[in-house]
Design a protein that fits this description.
The complex is a heterodimer of chains A (about 575) and B (about 80). Chain A is built from 21 helices and 3 strands. Chain A is mainly α and about 575 residues long. In chain B, α1 crosses α2. The N and C termini of chain B lie far apart (about 55 Å). Classes of the chains: A mainly alpha (about 575), B mainly alpha (about 80).
Chain lengths: ~575, ~80
């Protein structure tokens, strides 16, 4: 019975009990919920659970070779979140994280678009509380922008689903044609959640405003759910290669100048999503394996980096590079774990990023997409710059900030150590890791060319950074706001719209004045003409009346004549 | 070596040494890339170094029009 329950569902329902449990028991209870949910994965592939409502079959639990790796990593991430957030005594964030993780896991197992839509919106409404949990005016405003954009994405999905239902009579979650209207609507819906270029503002706006626990959870589910949906519905769509390549490319520059280290990580997240989108766009078995492997590894190392920065935020109260530095001696374990995350994301051999990214790069090479290949290679050097070096360097080394603090709480350390261990294990045992990927694979990432090429690329990129820093060419980090695409709706539209509205209001006033004046002038003119000058005198009026009467009689005759002719 | 460490620090010197080791490794074995352009000797090294400098240059030049006051959106 319990195994037929859709994975994640038990986590959402179980979350309702969380407020009534005492602190530590609550964490154990949450871990049990995750384990029960994971137990459903043992059922194997196929459709396991449907429900008929209003004459429509909602497929609640459908699993295949693509859902399995996402389900596994989502459960691992949910368990890590439970450990990482164990120091938080209040229940609010725990309810949010548990139901949010559950909704994302349930979404992965949805078999039709309407079921997906429900969980799609559920992830938005459950996760927004993690942003509100920061309890600042900034986070409050950011949360509203976040929910508006997430709901908009859901509306696109619903519109696409309805059109598809009318056209085909079926909304099964399968491969969609991007040239059709419904395909385009669904594509945009997924694109908003995957933070496509110009649709990415919400990501950098909201994630860094969330609580230290919240950002770790947020970084895991929403965007990777979108990646899963793209892999499921739009694999092999060439447009994705272009979009993905742009995504890997431009966030690098923003990350370089950003001061808030958690915001730097969101740019880095955006850039990593680009790698996955490119792979999905290629659509070959190797590429899809690469996208899934990258999503899997990415959740771990990105989560680890956010955990590291979350621990810094928790202890120090800020994540700004300009205010941090020299924390290594106070938080050595956090620093080492963050460095492991940084090495993994930079794709050093023997770490998870390398075995995942190699698949994508090889898929690109095999398809002969040279330009995109070099864009991604350039982006790889960028990843090292902003995530591999900037994050650990400015937080734990750089200059002495004068901040005195202590190591992160034990639960945070445990979560970080587990995530670090997984990053290393995946890197050391790639063939075991590759077994969970959707397609069978015979790939060896550790050959001489791959390893030496990657090591040269990364060490020389690191050497370039060292030169820039050592010779004081690298400018100091400054407290600042870096403009992003959210500027359009936060500044440009209000900036243009408000003066425009005022102008319209003024014009309306002026117009009314002019009309009123011209009316009164016409009135005076007419009265003068009729009364004073007697142009339209009584005789002319009675003549007109006679003409009108004759015309009316004529019309009546025609009307009556119609019935007789 | 001691002078080098004194001048550049332990970490910087180790990175420099690693760079040299990985260049030498390429001379010992035969490295080939996913694309033919990559087959040029020390290509990844040049590409990595130049990419980092370009990223830095573009990033710094973007500062002038993308970087605003911290309370920019609160004004």
């Amino acid at each position: 019975m319990i195994s037929n329950f859709p994975p994640g569902f038990i986590m959402i329902i179980g979350a309702l009990l969380i407020p009534f449990l005492p602190h530590i028991i609550r964490q154990i209870y949450m871990m049990i919920l995750v384990l029960i949910s994971a137990y459903s994965l043992t059922l194997g592939f196929g459709i396991h659970s449907t429900i008929n409502l209003m004459g429509f079959d909602f497929i609640l639990f459908q699993s295949d070779s693509l859902t399995l790796p996402f389900a596994i990593i989502f459960h691992i991430a949910a368990a890590l979140n439970v450990i990482y957030g164990a120091h938080e005594k209040h229940w609010k964030q725990h309810v949010s994280i548990m139901s949010y993780s559950g909704a994302a896991i349930a979404a992965v197992h949805a078999g039709d678009l309407f079921t997906l839509f429900i969980w799609w919106e559920a992830t938005a409404f459950t996760s927004v509380f993690l942003i509100l949990a920061s309890n600042t005016y900034r986070s409050y405003r950011s949360a509203f922008r976040y929910i508006l954009i997430q709901v908009t994405s859901g509306m696109f999905l619903l519109a696409g689903a309805i059109i598809l239902l009318i056209n085909d009579g079926s909304v099964l979650l399968t491969k969609f044609d991007v040239n059709s209207l419904y395909g385009q609507l669904i594509f945009i819906a997924f694109g908003i959640k995957a933070a496509f270029p110009l649709l990415n503002g919400w990501l950098q706006d909201s994630y860094p405003e969330a609580s230290e626990i919240g950002t770790v959870a947020l970084s895991t589910f929403t965007t990777k759910l979108a990646i899963f949906c793209f892999a499921k519905c739009f694999a092999g769509t060439e447009l994705l290669i272009v979009i993905g390549a742009i995504m890997t490319f431009y966030p690098i520059f923003f990350a370089v100048i950003e001061n808030d280290l958690r915001r730097v990580l969101t740019y880095s997240l955006n850039n990593q999503l680009g790698f996955m989108i490119v792979a999905i766009g290629i659509g070959t078995e190797l590429a899809i394996n690469g996208a899934v492997a990258h999503a899997f590894a990415h959740i771990l190392y990105k989560g680890l980096l956010f955990m590291g920065m979350g621990a810094v935020l928790y202890r120090v109260g800020t994540c700004k590079a300009s205010e941090l530095g020299g924390l290594f001696k106070y938080m050595p374990i956090t620093a080492v774990c963050t460095i492991i995350g940084a090495i993994s994301i930079s794709a050093f051999p023997l770490f998870s990023g390398f075995v995942a990214k190699s698949l994508i790069m090889s898929a690109l090479g095999k398809e002969g997409l040279v330009l995109v290949y070099f864009m991604l290679l350039f982006a790889s050097a960028g990843v090292l710059h902003h995530s591999g070096i900037k994050i650990p360097f400015f937080a734990f080394f750089a200059h002495e900030s004068g901040i005195k603090t202590k190591e992160a709480p034990l639960n945070m350390i445990i979560a970080m150590i587990i995530a670090s261990a997984l990053c290393i294990l995946i890197g050391i045992f790639p063939s075991t890791f590759y077994q969970i990927l959707p397609y069978e694979i015979n790939y060896q990432p550790y050959d001489f060319s791959h390893v030496v090429g990657q090591l040269q690329l990364l060490t020389f990129a690191a050497f370039a950074f060292i030169c820039l820093w050592h010779f004081k060419i690298y400018p100091p980090e400054l407290n600042s706001t870096v403009l992003n695409s959210d500027w359009v709706y936060r500044k440009m539209i209000p900036g243009v719209l408000m003066p425009l509205l005022k102008l319209v209001e003024k014009m309306n006033q002026k117009f009314e004045e002019v009309i009123m004046i011209s009316f009164s002038k016409t009135k005076i003119l007419l009265s003068n003409t009729m009364i004073k000058n007697k142009v339209f005198d009584r005789e002319v009026g009675s003549d007109t009346l006679i003409v009108v009467q004759i015309f009316t009689v004529f019309l009546i005759l025609i009307f009556i004549g119609q019935f007789f002719l | 070596m001691k002078a080098l460490i004194k001048k550049f620090g332990k970490i910087n010197t180790s990175v420099l040494l690693l760079c040299i080791i990985f260049l030498v490794l390429e001379l010992i074995g035969h490295r080939h890339g996913e694309t033919s352009i990559e087959d040029f000797t020390f290509f990844p090294a040049f590409f990595g170094f130049l990419s980092c400098i370009i990223i830095f240059k573009i990033g710094v030049s973007l500062r002038s029009f993308l970087m605003k006051d911290e309370d920019y959106y609160d004004k």
